[in-house]
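Example record

One chain of 665 residues, shown exactly as stored in the release files.
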Amino acid sequence: MSPTTNKNKRRLVFVFLISCILCTGLAFRVGWIQVVASERYAKMAVEQQTRDIPIPAKRGVIYDRNGKELAISAVTNSIWARPGVVKDASTPEKAQENLEKTASALSEILGMEKEGILQVISQNRSLVKVAKFVDKERADQIRALGLKGIEIAEDVKRYYPMGAFAAHLLGSTTDDNRGLAGIELKYDKYLSGIPGRWIKNTDRDGDSLSYGVEKYFQAENGLNLVLTIDEVIQHYVEKALDTVQVNTQADRVMSIVMDPKTGDILAMGVTPDFDPNNPRVPLTTAGAAYVESLPDKEKLEFWNKMWRNPLVSDDYEPGSTFKLLTTAMALEEGVTFLDDKFVCTGSIQVAGERLKCWRSYNPHGAQNLVKAVGNSCNPVFVQLAQRVGYEKYFDYLELFGLRDKTGIDYPGEGYAILQDEETAGPVGLATMSYGQGIAITPIQLITAVSALGNEGKLMQPRIVKELRDDNGNVIQEFDTKVVRQVVSKQTAEEMCLIMEAVVGEGGGGTAKIPGYRIGGKTGTANKAKGGGYSEETFSSFIGMAPMDDPQIAIIMIVDNPKGVKFGSQTAAPGVRLVLEETLRYLNIQPSYSEEEKQLIESGYTTVPDVVNQNLSDAIGILGGASLNYTVSPPAQDGEDFIIVDQYPKPGEKMQKGGTVCLYKN
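Predicted structure tokens for this chain:
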């Protein structure tokens, strides 16, 4: 063996010293990790080994008053990925290949873009969500592939089994099952429940560690809501709204049905509507394409408008329907009575201003109070308001609940827009008396008028009756609430007689139903625009039935009908459709007079006398006799005029559904 040279000795010493230094450094480093930084590394280890799985709470069911499910939580699946496990491979190229294969397989089953999935599962995170609300069939397909690092967890999704049914009332939820609009938003804290968690220690692949800790916190399901809505009556309303929209080509048609005795909302509908299962996509193909073309900011504005419930949130000028309240005020103050005499000359002077009757071209002449309401004679209501007095009139506006919100349990309720009491003056009082220069919400008007069918007691409207748990136990009840006595029982009864006369003998006849005592009032009001009024109208009808013991109050508003705009021709027929079905459904039996029985059996009706009536009233009167009409010479859209002759003549027998020819000058 050759002797070790000095050079080799130096090399060995150098290597030995370097090894000593490295070992010393390693010892110090291990000591630092084990002693000084032990808590930090222990925490990191726990975080890496701990898997925190959210357990979604089941959102409460929404029922109608009879237990029909209107909104439920359907079981679905979420797809999760562990990127570290998916791309685990010996080389970067192999890791990328694993990611590509996994993304391709998921894309094919889920119908999602491969690039989007690839971007998600390539993140530097321990756990990422790939997709939510995956049905069982597709989840089973993914499970069968056994993809490494891909996990499937049970989830819940809000589901509305009837689609667009009562959409504006129910509202909708976000993808995270939080209330977005309507009742879903108002009662979100009760419906949403409390999510649970499953915490356990796992290895890198997600398998439980034998020495690990495992804790399971059960989710607490949301409470169930029982509404005052009757699913059957809601169907009747929505069917009538669709019919009216087709017949009138209106921009919107909306309606509320209320129980005047309790304030319970039995139905509430707006058309066009939307499907809360997919609330961001309009129901029509054209509408969906239009929304897709909008920038994000305008999309949000469009959605908010589509979800908005105008029956609660928006105000409008009620027109002649408001005359019912002015009449009730005057009767209650004792400044008029049913047979009180008035003379219409076509206009009335108020503080130097000449306010016209809508029929100024042919004044109503002598009439009593009942007839004046049926005629919607503006000068009469100006006189009634003047008799009530300025301060008292505003007091009654407050008593009827028009100077505040109704308190309905629904988000976004709007306020009425009233003239300022300090500055309205005589002219402002006069125009308010017949429903102009004042804007109220539909829920305010039907709540106020319903007091006339409830012996003068104003009720607070409500939509939710009670909260229940999954076992059917009542957790909380929401009682009916009497707000105040607005008018006396006598005044309320007299108003019921007046409303019945409007339908039985006047322009509200298109809402008439043989065998039932129907009451109501039509209204046609031009829309306020730019400090004046446009040609567009709100045409409406508000009514109750049966008038001897009102069980149903209803308002229907037709927004900007095309062609004939009178409430008697647009809204009143829709109200009749609802009342015919609803009265039978509630088992309220008809009571026919002998004449009605004979006419029903024969299929014929007696032609009423509409000569010297204005067209809008004639339409209602003929409708009450189940007759159609035609005008000669043809009238322009929205034109009102006096009928100078008719054929067949009054008193003749005519088959129901026949057409009476009306002649104008």
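Notes: The first strand starts at residue 50 and ends at 55.
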